[in-house]
Write a structure and sequence with these properties.
globular; four-stranded antiparallel sheet; mainly beta
Amino acid sequence: MKSTKTIAVGLLTFASTFSSHADEFSRWTWRNPKPLGSTLYSIIHAENQFVAVGAYGEIVTSTNGRTWTIEAAGTTGRFLGVCHGDGLFAAYGFVQNPQGSPAFLANLVVSPDARNWTRPPHNLPSGLQGMAYGASHWVCLDTFGNIRSSPDLAGWTLQVPAVISAFSELIFAQDKFVAVGNRGVIMTSTNGITWQEQDSGTTANLQDIAYGDGKFVVVGGDEMLGQGIILTSENAEDWWIQTTDFPLNGVAYGPNGFTAVGGGGFGTDCGSSMNSSDGVYFAAGPEGCDSGLTATPNDVACNDEVCVAVGFWGLLAVSEDGLIWSNNQEGTSAATLHATATTSA
């Protein structure tokens, strides 16, 4: 009798000896590349560590941006973002709703240390796109463009219905929440409850926002046109606009000022980055693969020494100047692993 088994080359290996029992197929351990190879969407630096989250419930942590530990989130749902506030890390995104509408349900886990994660009870009706804590409130953006607030992560109240645009990200800085999104939408609030729309001066899609040295910096662009945009403001109300030669997905404030990352579309190309000491005048690093960004980055975070970019194919790249990057994956790049091997006996 002939038996066949299929093994995903370079991605996963069995955690136990081959068995005819079905439950043996549920235990897998990631082997190559290290620490992982699936897409990472977001990263922050808080409590002296980097925390990054990804497409299939991945959470990885690092104290230096170079050595990473995979944490157990207890879910395989997608994480689109991670934030820190009120003594907690919160990773958020969506899971498929097996019952139908809404198509995506909230995926939310919290941790005091980024290692031990639990699911808090909540009344969130749909997936989450952004979250931040400030003014004694948590604020979230859902995937339909609504803004909700909560004092405790459990009871959420709708504050702004989805009548303006789909949001991408928000932060709390300079004693205010600032939310950004598609078609140039920017909204601000001092309490997370009452919101005011600001005139951004653009209709471009805005992807991320950072604050540092008295300035807000927002980045975005248009992947189809291959163009990017940077907005700078001291008050989140009056914005100075400049364009770039490639779309930007993430921005952070670090040891060399503001670092923005982006580049090619849909994760198939290498990435690029820009750096600015003042948030106004940005210098571009090497284009494409010469930058060291071996896949398109989705986000970036910095501590006092380095910045870390995360993106497609498990990209985890470190830079000391925001322009030249070193990928910290070990093993064969996940971007090259598409085949499976079949063994027969």
